[in-house]
Amino acid sequence: MKNKGGALGFFLGMGVCGVAFAAQPMTQGKAFNPDISANFLGLWQHGTGISNDRTNANHNGFSLQEAELQLLSDVDPYMRASALLSVSQKDGTSDFGIDPEEVFLETTSLPGVTVKAGKFKMALGRHNQLHTHAFPFIDAPLIHQQLIGSEGLNEAGVSAAVLMPTSWYSELTVQGFNPSNDTLYKSPSSGDVGGLVHFKNLLDVNDDLTSELGLSATAAKNQFNQTASVLGADLTFKWRPAVGGKYHALIWSTEYLDGHRPKQADANGASQVNLGGVATWLQYQLDERWWVQGRYEYVGIPRSVGVSKQMKESALIAFLPSEFSGIRLQYDHSSPTSRPGKDDHTIAVQYNVTIGAHPAHSY
Fold first, then answer.
1. Which end of the chain is more exposed for a tag (fewer CB within 10 A), N or C?
2. Which residues contact 103 (CB under 8 A, 6 or more apart)?
């Protein structure tokens, strides 16, 4: 077994399709100025199940999928702060809005623990912690969209991540938050507090292969004053050869979420209390700048009577000229059982550009 630093270093160091936007170090000469970066995603798509109404945020044709402006700086020797503002189209209008996607401070000098406070992406599995430009595919998995919404579980709260005393990298994260998520919770009381626990383990299988196993659980009061909850599990294998690793890599990720939403029902009163689903995908780097990827998704394990089963398959090819830019072509085929024989097909092209001193993504 390798030491915990080996696994962590491998995951931090890998450039992945859609997440390879590297950090640039701070210098003493600009100690009082934050690192500033911007990222923007342009999108063209055409899908049989997508609206042609441009006032829908997700519509056919050309769009600015999202733009982000991030400021990051050390506050003092004990803390650092990050502010990330997101610009995206508001649903129901063609206008754009600016939202604080993440604004938080976190400690940097406490031994064995990192404390964070502010608004940030909750540690529910792996995918929920990614920004849109870092998604492995152009869109989030179906179960994430249907269970926690297109913006994911992104709440105001506090977090403590503790490094466990093991021979491998093991981290336990405990978070408390305001359950305002419109899809899962939508608690009407600002006094309600939700809880989340995430247990992450990184292991070196050998010199070329690293694995990550995560378990998650979250619960809070919903709009019906009932306790809604989600259980999650994720497993990732990353292979990059010690020799020739610049040109070849393979990533296999699988994530499962199981939601329990008391009193949730559709327009006809049919129960939608239980909703679970899985997404699994492969990403293969076939050359220095080219990636090919495939994803399979199944929603409906478990499911209540008011929830339709849905299957989706995606294929993607990406060209990454550098760690600061990328062009991706994706095809989706989905089969909702609510419309037998009427499958949906979508083709999408996305460009992804980052400028400035963008921080490394955590793995």
1. N
2. 82, 83, 84, 118, 119, 120
Whether the link from the prior residue into 77 is cis, omega within 30° of 0, is: no
Query: Does the domain spanning 36-63+110-356 belong to CATH 3.90.180.10?
Result: no
Distances (CA, A) of 15 to 41, 91, 248, 309, 315: 18, 33, 11, 34, 20
Query: Taking the domains of the chain in order of start, what are their residue ranges?
Result: 1-31, 36-63+110-356
Tens-digit pLDDT string for the chain (363 aa): 444 444 444 444 444 444 443 444 444 556 678 999 999 999 999 999 999 999 999 999 999 999 999 999 999 999 999 999 999 999 999 999 999 999 999 999 999 999 999 999 999 999 999 999 999 999 999 999 999 998 899 999 999 999 999 999 999 999 999 999 999 999 999 899 999 999 999 999 999 999 999 999 999 999 999 999 999 999 999 999 998 888 999 999 999 999 999 998 877 777 889 999 999 999 999 999 999 999 999 999 998 887 889 999 999 999 999 999 999 999 999 987 666 778 999 999 999 999 998 776 665
Task: Report the C-alpha gap between 121 and 153 in whole angstroms.
Answer: 6
Q: Is the distance from CB of 303 to CB of 274 less than 8 angstroms? A: yes
Q: Which pair of tokens denotes residue 51?
A: 């609206």
The three state secondary structure string of 143-193 is HHHHHHCCCCCEEEEEEEEEECCCCCEEEEEEEEECCCCCCCCCCCCCCCC
Query: What stretches of 323-361 adopt beta strand conformation (E)?
Result: 325-336, 344-356
Instruction: Output DSSP code: residue 235.
Output: E
- CA 113/CA 159 separation, integer angstroms: 10
